[in-house]
Amino acid sequence: MLDLTLQDWRSKAASLTLPNRAFIDGKFVDAVSGRTFDSINPATGAVLTGVAECDAADVDLAVAAARRAFEDGRWSRMAPGDRKAVLLKLADLIRANLEEMALLDCLDMGKTITDAATVDAPGSAHFFQWYAEAIDKIYDEVAPTGPGDLALVRRVPLGVVGAVVPWNFPLDMATWKSAAALAAGNSVVLKPAEQSPLSALRLAELAAEAGVPDGVFNVVPGYGATAGKALGLHMDVDCLAFTGSTATGKLFMQYSGQSNLKQVWPETGGKSPNIVFADCGDLDAAADMAAFGIFFNQGEVCSANSRLYVERSVKDALVEKLAERAQGMQPGDPLDPDSKMGAIVDEKQTQGIMRFVEEGKTSADLITGGERVQIDGKGCFVQPTIFSDVAQDNPLARDEIFGPVLSVIPFDKEEDAVTMANDSIYGLAASVWTDDLSRACRVSDRLNVGTVSVNTVDALSAQTPFGGMKQSGFGRDLSLHSFDKYTALKTTWIKYRA
Fold first, then answer.
1. Which residue from 15, 236, 279, 462 puts its CA 20 to 30 A from 99's CA?
2. Are residues 429 and 299 in the same domain?
3. Could you tell me if residue 19 is inside a domain?
4. What is residue 481's predicted lDDT score, i.e. its pLDDT?
5. Residue 226 domain flag
């Protein structure tokens, strides 16, 4: 697959069948209203397909199907080993259809085919496999009691889980939510972002092929203000898992209070700091990873390391190295395996990024980039952009831009770096570069974020929880801890004759 050329990928894309109908109760269906919305390729502006525009009526149907499936036990009471076998088969099917899954995300939201085929799609298969393997390895508890009493504490599935996921990692984010929820025995109603619904719809089809029973995994494409809101307000949804903006996360919290007090698990915005101390022994590695931390996936990453705090004595040297790397990461056709960056997801997001860039040109030093470009005269592309000597109160350093824009901010003392890094409404992730172990531990302890990566950026795995603090939300994906949000602890107390 890695040997395929641009023409190979274009040929495969042209012959691709695009899923475009909602998936409810084990089958593809049109929206009740009959309406559709356009899925647009941001690299070309071309309409890929019209997708079923689900609203509250479709959500009602999907939730009812999910509830029936949960209550009759076709999945929730299936033997753990049998559930495991189904999800393992789903992981295998994702791998067997890797090119197709990668192409769907590449065409739908503009990420490079290389990233989609080597990171996203394989990662989705890996996470389904990981949670499948965990199913029969989680034990319940027997509480300590006196003679004549037996207290059992069990993890039980919640019921119907609503999942609303963003457009930046369409397949991965759908997997992060649904793999753990399904493994725990829940039924799922997934609402993908309207910008990128295609891979979620194909995932549902593969899940059915793997043996996930009808009604257990449903996908309702549509807009957040209709389908997403309907899930948030639904009286028969037991849990809502969300990744997206902080503003939308707050809405889901309100929807819970206005409806049935469903659990809401938000993972929201980020503005991650990356702190480079002068005692970092490998400035080239720091530059490599700082560039990756902001330009990977076109900067459309909630935990992107968009604030770079650099000790003043090494700032100029590091900025020079970063500018060189940015020059080598110019955007290109997402289907070209040699492209280092793809397209921004849509016109609205592109214009939003460029407003920050244009305002930044008047308030900070533009080192490189700063322009919107086109490939073959088309598309939503933004150059990798670096601003230096950015003030701490500049919107470049305060707001989540969600694009390939890096703000470099110098500091003189460790205390100053920590204070500025924590001076944000967000607390998703952070990075620290130093060869001093004591400093690494000291600074990591003081950063108010969910994950601190030392001498790397944005470290994560299936084994470690991912989520934030402050207005980055409190939901946690990945690791065994994600079962906490998709299960309840149930005590059964038995008295017997001792």
1. 462
2. yes
3. yes
4. 96
5. yes
Asked if residue 498 has pLDDT above 90, the reply is no
Q: What range does the domain containing 442 cover?
A: 273-462
List the catalytic residue out of 53, 99, 267, 300: 267
Give the CATH number for residue 305. 3.40.309.10
321 plus 198 within the same structural domain: no
Residues 6+ apart with CB under 8 A from 403: 298, 299, 300, 344, 349, 352, 353, 356, 382
**What's the token pair of residue 248?**
């939308």
Task: Give the DSSP H/E element, type plus range, for residue 420.
Answer: helix 414-422
Is 267 designated active site? yes
Length of the chain, please? 498
Q: What is the mean pLDDT of residues 172-191?
A: 98
- What would the pLDDT profile of 292-307 be if each residue is shown by its tens digit? 999 999 999 999 999 9
Q: How many domains does the chain have?
A: 2
Which CATH number belongs to the domain containing residue 41 in this structure?
A: 3.40.605.10
Residues in contact with 216: Cβ distance below 8 Å, sequence separation at least 6, in sequence order: 66, 69, 70, 74, 75, 182, 187, 188, 207
Supply the pLDDT for residue 1: 65
Tens of pLDDT, residue by residue over 92-147, are 999 999 999 999 999 999 999 999 999 999 999 999 999 999 999 999 999 999 99
Six-digit token string for 370: 């700063």
Catalytic residue from among 239, 280, 302, 380: 302
Catalytic residue list contains 53? no
Give domain status of residue 496, yes or no: no
pLDDT at residue 489, as a whole number: 97
d(CA 366, CA 383): 12
